[in-house]
Amino acid sequence: MSVFSDSYLAANASNLPPEAIPMLRQRLENLTESQKAYVLSADLKNPTTALIFSIFFGYLGVDRFYIGHIGLGVAKLLLSWMTLGLWPLIDWFLIMGATRQTNLENLNHAINAATMFHP
């Protein structure tokens, strides 16, 4: 067992999909010391913050901009009025899962970059 993988996952478990934790633990345990810096630099967003943005500024697409979905943020900004507020309302239920999924993708990219450039 790796102290790094356990502590990293303990600190970031709420920001990641629960079903991905075992796979991530295995990938993190195989990293060398120099590769861990890449993982620590991965930009993970807080799902609760995304939900707060969605509730208060969802009609402006701020929640989607926050998690890095620029295209959806622009579309939501321009089209929220056409859905009569339905799109922002639906996003209240989807944004936390989307944030966790985006965080998983960002972390996987960081692990891949670490293993590619620092074998």
TrEMBL record:
Q: Which InterPro entries match?
A: TM2, TM2D1-3-like
A GO CC term attached to the entry:
membrane
> Where this protein primarily resides, as one coarse class?
membrane
Q: Where are the transmembrane segments?
A: 48-66, 78-98
The answer to whether the entry has keyword Aminoacyl-tRNA synthetase is no
Q: Where in the cell is it found?
A: Membrane
Q: Where is the TM2 domain?
A: 45-93
Pfam families according to UniProt: TM2
Q: Which key words are in the record?
A: Membrane, Transmembrane, Transmembrane helix
- Coiled coil feature spans: none
Q: How does it sit in the membrane?
A: Multi-pass membrane protein
Going by the entry's taxonomy, the superkingdom of the source organism is recorded as: Bacteria
Q: Cross-referenced PANTHER family, in alphabetical order?
A: BETA-AMYLOID BINDING PROTEIN-RELATED, TM2 DOMAIN-CONTAINING PROTEIN DDB_G0277895-RELATED
Q: What is this protein called?
A: TM2 domain-containing protein
Q: What is the lineage of its organism?
A: Bacteria, Bacillati, Bacillota, Bacilli, Lactobacillales
